[in-house]
Amino acid sequence: MAATDPIAEKTDEELARDARAGSRRSFEELASRYKRRLFVYLRPRLGSDEDAEDMVQDTFLKIYRSIDRYDPAYRFSTWLYTSASRLAIDSFRKNAVARDQALASSGTDIPDQAAGREFEAGAAGVWDTARTLGTARYRVLWLRYGEDMTIEEIAAVLGRSRLAVRVLLHRARTSLAGRLGPDVGLAARTRSGVARQAAGD
Questions:
Q1: Domain 116-201 class?
Q2: Residue 75 to residue 187: CA distance in whole angstroms
Q3: Which CATH architecture is the domain 9-108 placed in?
Q4: What is the pLDDT of residue 182?
């Protein structure tokens, strides 16, 4: 029987500490664990699969360059998703400015950027339905049920107060339940592995 790879047995936080000490292999293991999950988190906010894949790469590059600033007192996933969120916000703002300038110079009316951006026709399943709720509600649902983060950790990632996160999460669950129907419970569906299936784990 093949021996178990000791790196694969380590927690995210142990790997991050090792990466901070110079272990490239530990960082590669972290990237392998989170690449698909980060893509699922970022995709609704960005314009295409390619943009989301680029943002995943940019996030890992940023994390790699700043790994010496990682504080092991906190979960690695919180630090990772906070970095990804900040990069996505910066990218969205830059793209929005470029789009607005192009539309203004062409004399075309500037559309409502939020309208319909997250809706995918014919979506099936909990996470496909969650994407139709809008970026903010999808993100809070993913962090809570896909990544099993606490309210405090989600607040840190999103840069909101704990109360704001609780309100957003309540509204997201209510909206999702309304779209899925009264007989479908979010917790029952997500905690049974739907979130990991969505991430490809």
A1: mainly alpha
A2: 23
A3: Orthogonal Bundle (1.10)
A4: 54
